[in-house]
Amino acid sequence: MSQETFRPPQQARSRDTLRKVLKAAEKVLATGGIEEFTVAAVADHAGMSVGTIYRRFENKEQLLHAVKAEMLDQLETAVTQALAEAEPSLKGVTTAFTEAVAHTFGEHNKIFPELLSGQRAEGVELGLRSLAKIQDALVEAAEPYREGVHEEALRFAARSITGSCVHRAATCQVWPDGLTWTAWADETAEMALAYLTSPRI
């Protein structure tokens, strides 16, 4: 079994156990980083035996992959929901996109940097697929309002917003900017809109 697959839960009790394991894994990553991430540490935080986790995952790499998949799924869901509820304008969808990305990273700012660095090829591919999906979602949501704005500019804005968010999550502990994630999202959305509405675009 590869690290990207694991035994999916079939019953409600098993699904609850899996959620508990993933939450515990997030906690270990958030407090101790990748260096302290072990199956034993996750089991301790989850209040269960190591064997219970090994019945679902073959090793810690497979568990890490599952945590990453869960975080990226949360990111995709947050962006999709925010865009569906956005004010119907270029500013509305750009702001909604930026706020959704910032909110997700802000909730897990100690975890995402660990998951987005030093991963094997399949982990990198998983992340890139997810980032491509949210980029496509912004382009699709902005379609009715992007008169005079090239699709390439929207994709560049999406990549820049997301990349900036990744960078902030990775550096905010050692290089603070004095902003909350909400304030950061507002400033970043304004900057993206200035770029998108510039005559040269």
Give the secondary structure arrangement, pairings included:
Elements: H1 12-32, H2 39-46, H3 50-54, H4 60-84, H5 90-107, H6 112-115, H7 121-142, H8 151-171, H9 181-196
Helix pairs in contact: 1-2, 1-4, 4-5, 4-7, 5-8, 5-9, 7-8, 8-9
Order of helices and strands: HHHHHHHHH
Gyration radius from CA atoms, angstroms: 19 Å
| Total count of strands | 0
The CATH superfamily label of the largest domain reads: Tetracycline Repressor, domain 2
InterPro entries: Homeodomain-like_sf, HTH-type_TetR-like_transc_reg, HTH_TetR
Keywords: DNA-binding, Transcription, Transcription regulation
Protein name: TetR family transcriptional regulator
Pfam families: TetR_N
Task: Report on this structure.
By secondary structure, the chain is an all-alpha fold. It has 2 domains: 12-62, Homeodomain-like (Arc Repressor Mutant, subunit A); 67-196, Orthogonal Bundle (Tetracycline Repressor, domain 2), CATH 1.10.357. It is built from 9 helices and no strands. Helix 4 packs antiparallel against helix 5. The protein is elongated and about 60 Å long. The termini are far apart. The mean pLDDT is 89.
Any descriptors?
201 residues, mainly alpha, Arc Repressor Mutant, subunit A, Tetracycline Repressor, domain 2, 9 helices, 70% helix, transcription cis-regulatory region binding, HTH_TetR
Short structural description:
It contains nine helices and no strands.
